[in-house]
Amino acid sequence: MATIAIFNQKGGVGKTTTCLNLTAGLTRAQRCPVVIDLDPQAHMTLASGVRDVRADTSVAAFFKGGAPLANLIQETAGGWQLIPATLELAKIDVMFGNDTQAGMMLSHGLKEELALTGAPVLIDCCPMLGVLTLNALLAADRVLIPVSADFLSLQGVHRLEVALNVLETKLKRKIERRVVVTRFDARRKLAFEIYDKVKERYGDLVCNTRISENVALATSPMHAKDIFSFAPNSPGAVDYKALTLELIKSGFFS
């Protein structure tokens, strides 16, 4: 089982869009992923078509009351399994902010309850480095970092790189990471400049596939659909299919 945290400290970079459509791509490839929504905004939950989630049936119940992760899994219309989020998650940072062991809760829970399934686990993180995201990063085997083709998003990657290096020192293990450039608009010179800067700094860590700016990608979550179900012939579907295959072939989900 590979656990993948999808994270950037800047919002609006296509983090949930990437989680949603990689999950759908893996489902289409018969990889049977499990997704954990660790964002109190619950965008991944909503995009998966799951509504009216109670706190006691969400991932908040795991952190607050020790509910088994396996008991919180819900089936989605898209065919993947989801542990949903609610706004109740926003209280976790306050509850555990001074607990030095709180960052390992998810890691322990995954190993005890989901490790035997062999399914890849994708974690949609909130865009800030707090207790929830620390849980995701400490539980993760690998981190996928979406970077939209703009200057501020690039700065978020640099900050995350520093944080991951610190965690690696403490954990005494390497956290494998990949960077994917999103919201790439080939009509803008800036997009190519940002892409070149990302490649210059991160080299082979950067995915070959770029995700083009695409209206269908922004619209599909409103209909609780992934891009393959909503607009299968769109540039977004083509790009996310290519990204899924690239990451599968590289062993990122294994």
TrEMBL record:
Entry-linked InterPro entries: AAA_dom, DNA_Partitioning_ATPase, P-loop_NTPase
Domain AAA: 2-176
Gene3D superfamilies: P-loop containing nucleotide triphosphate hydrolases (3.40.50.300)
Protein name listed in UniProt: Chromosome-partitioning ATPase Soj
Stretches that traverse the bilayer: none
Pfam annotation, one family: AAA_31
